[in-house]
C-alpha cells in the first residue's frame, strides 16, 4: 500500500471457502488487533459476500514499514472450525519527508589569509524517505552581503563547502549564507540551514602614517599634539607603540584614556637654537602588537622660528685708522661692519 493512502481506503481480500453446507459453511472473519486496519464484510441480497481490508489510520513508512496481520475465518458449525491467513502489508514510500540538516546553524571561523580552496565546512542533511525521495542535493540560495556571492562554492552531492576567493577582514568580517538541501522526489521537498562564516583578523596591515610639518619657537617642556597612526586590523594587531629618532631635543608621550582613546604628544626636552639647527628631521615609527609586528613611519620636519636672541657683532672690536691732517671733508674714514645671525628684521642692523 502507498503510505499516502487516505484513511478509509478499501482493499478487496479473497474470501475463505468451506466445503460444508448450510450453517457449517457460514463464515465470519476476525482480524488480529490493529490500530491501522479493520475488516468490512458485505453481503448482498443473493448472499454473496465481499471482504475488504479498510485503512483506518494514515500510514507512515518511516515509523512502520511492514504490517503483519492475521486474518481468521470461522464457520458456524458446532464446534466452530477456523482457518487463518497472514496478511503482509508493505508500505510503499511517498515523498512526505523534507531533508533535515543536522544543524540549523553552522558557525565557522577562518583567518583572513586562508587560501582559496580551503574547506570551510561539510554540511549534511538526511531524508528518511527511500530511493530518489531520499537523494539530496545541496546549494547556496542566499549570501549576505549580496556582493559576496562568489566567496564559496558548494558541492551539490557531498555538501562540502570550499573557499573560492580571498577573504579580507577589513572588508567583510561576517558572511551569512543560506543553504538548501532538496530531495529528488515528486514534488521535491527541501530543508534549509544557515552558515555563519566569521573572518578572523590577521596582522596584514601596517600602521598608516603621513608627513607632519611643525614650526616651533618655545621652551623645554612644551607639548605639541600629534596625529597618531591608524591600523585597519583589530585587537593586539592594532595596538600601537611609538618610537622617535633622533631624540636629542624631543621625546614622545603616549596617553591612553579609560575608553582606550590615545593621545600622542611631542615633548620638547632641550632648548632650540635656530642658529645652530634650523630644521630638525625626526622619524616617528609606529609598531603594532601583531606577530610578527608591522611598522609604519612618519617624518616630522620641524622648522625652528627665529627669535631676536642675538645682538649684532662688529667684525672688529677696535678700528684703527690714520688720516693726513689735510684730508678733505667727505673723505671715507672707514667702513665698519656688524652682523646679526638672526633672520628678517631681527638681522637688520642700523649704525
Automatic annotation (TrEMBL):
It comes from the Eukaryota. It holds the Pfam family Cadherin. One of its GO terms (biological process) is homophilic cell adhesion via plasma membrane adhesion molecules. Residues 1-101, 102-209, 229-314, 315-351 form the Cadherin domain. Keywords: Calcium, Cell adhesion, Cell membrane, Glycoprotein, Membrane, Repeat, Signal, Transmembrane, Transmembrane helix. Transmembrane segments: none annotated. GO terms for cellular component: plasma membrane. It is a single-pass type I membrane protein. InterPro entries: Cadherin-like_dom, Cadherin-like_sf, Cadherin_CS, Protocadherin/Cadherin-CA. This is PCDAD protein. The keyword rRNA-binding does not apply. It is found in: Cell membrane. GO terms for molecular function: calcium ion binding.
Amino acid at each position: 500500500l502507498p503510505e499516502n493512502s487516505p484513511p478509509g481506503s478499501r482493499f478487496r481480500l479473497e474470501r475463505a471457502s468451506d466445503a460444508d453446507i448450510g450453517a457449517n459453511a457460514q463464515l465470519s472473519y476476525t482480524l488480529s488487533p490493529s490500530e491501522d486496519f479493520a475488516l468490512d464484510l458485505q453481503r448482498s441480497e443473493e448472499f454473496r459476500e465481499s471482504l475488504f481490508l479498510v485503512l483506518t489510520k494514515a500510514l507512515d513508512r518511516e515509523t512502520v514499514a511492514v504490517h503483519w496481520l492475521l486474518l481468521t475465518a470461522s464457520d458456524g458449525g458446532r464446534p466452530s472450525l477456523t482457518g487463518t491467513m497472514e496478511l503482509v502489508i508493505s508500505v510503499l514510500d511517498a515523498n512526505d519527508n523534507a531533508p533535515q540538516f543536522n544543524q540549523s546553524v553552522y558557525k565557522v571561523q577562518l583567518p583572513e589569509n586562508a587560501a582559496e580552496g580551503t574547506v570551510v565546512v561539510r554540511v549534511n542533511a538526511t531524508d528518511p524517505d527511500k530511493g530518489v525521495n531520499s537523494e539530496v542535493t545541496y546549494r547556496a540560495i542566499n549570501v549576505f552581503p549580496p556582493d559576496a556571492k562568489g566567496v564559496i562554492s558548494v558541492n551539490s552531492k557531498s555538501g562540502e563547502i570550499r573557499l573560492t576567493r580571498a577573504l579580507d577582514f577589513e572588508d567583510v568580517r561576517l558572511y551569512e549564507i543560506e543553504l538548501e538541501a532538496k530531495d529528488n522526489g515528486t514534488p521535491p521537498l527541501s530543508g534549509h540551514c544557515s552558515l555563519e562564516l566569521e573572518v578572523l583578523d590577521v596582522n596584514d596591515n601596517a600602521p598608516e602614517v603621513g608627513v607632519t610639518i611643525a614650526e616651533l619657537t618655545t621652551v623645554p617642556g612644551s607639548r605639541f599634539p600629534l596625529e597618531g597612526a591608524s591600523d585597519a586590523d583589530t585587537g593586539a594587531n592594532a595596538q600601537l607603540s611609538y618610537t622617535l629618532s633622533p631624540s636629542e631635543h624631543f621625546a614622545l608621550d603616549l596617553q591612553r584614556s579609560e575608553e582606550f582613546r590615545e593621545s600622542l604628544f611631542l615633548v620638547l626636552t632641550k632648548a632650540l637654537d635656530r642658529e645652530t639647527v634650523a630644521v630638525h628631521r625626526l622619524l616617528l615609527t609606529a609598531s603594532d602588537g601583531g606577530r610578527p609586528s608591522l611598522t609604519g613611519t612618519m617624518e616630522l620636519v620641524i622648522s625652528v622660528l627665529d627669535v631676536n636672541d642675538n645682538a649684532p657683532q662688529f667684525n672688529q672690536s677696535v678700528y684703527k685708522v690714520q688720516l693726513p691732517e689735510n684730508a678733505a671733508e667727505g673723505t671715507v674714514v672707514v667702513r665698519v661692519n656688524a652682523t646679526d645671525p638672526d633672520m628678517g628684521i631681527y638681522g637688520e642692523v642700523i649704525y
